[in-house]
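User: Some background: our group keeps a shared notebook of sequences we're curious about, and every so often someone picks one and asks for a predicted structure to add to the entry. Today it's my turn. The entry only has the sequence so far, pasted here. Could you supply the structure so I can complete it?
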Amino acid sequence: MLPFTYCGPVPSSGDAAVSLRIGLVSDTHIPEAMDHLWPQVYEAFDGVDYIFHGGDIHEFWVLDTLEKLAPVYAARGNGEDGSGGRPVQPDDPRVREAWSFEMENLTVGLTHYIPTEERPPYLTVARWVERYFPDRRPDVIVYGDTHTEAIEVVDGILCVNPGSPTYPHNYDTQYGTIGFLDLDDGNADASVWLITDGGIEAFDWDEVPPWRQR
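Assistant: Of course. Here's the predicted structure to add to the notebook entry:
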């Protein structure tokens, strides 16, 4: 069965229909954006099996706080390598340029950037797959970098960007988005959620988002 977008409520951790739930976050830019992540992010990820961070973390203590909830894997973003004059972050066993996981009969990749807005022949998802995932083509790739939430199938791969919880669409600090990836025996469901005062709510792809109303 092809992966598809999950648009309903996040299932509870006791839902037998979901075998593995992964919390998705990217481009936190801490402490550049704010001193600490919104508490709603930690509340939303309580009970997930893993947390994937799509890079531009920037300070790795953010991973320490997330790791109190679940095992964390992160992509190394350009911000961790000194982009914009930021401090270069040290090596960390939780952080790689690209990760590949075998989960629930699926191959899931994690990296900071992939060119989902393809411009052949050089900027294509296929070329990035050859570069970062040469051993096995992923069924799903989680990524970040753009600060723009996205769930789309590109070249047969489900590509999921949870956006940024702090700098949505590169706007100033405000409530942004996070995501979830639910895996179950060869099926992958992805969803994006908007942070609100009261917690999170399903992102409405048809509505004008808050950052464009300010």
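Suggested note for the entry: The chain has a mean pLDDT of 91. The helical segments are 39-45, 61-67, 125-132.
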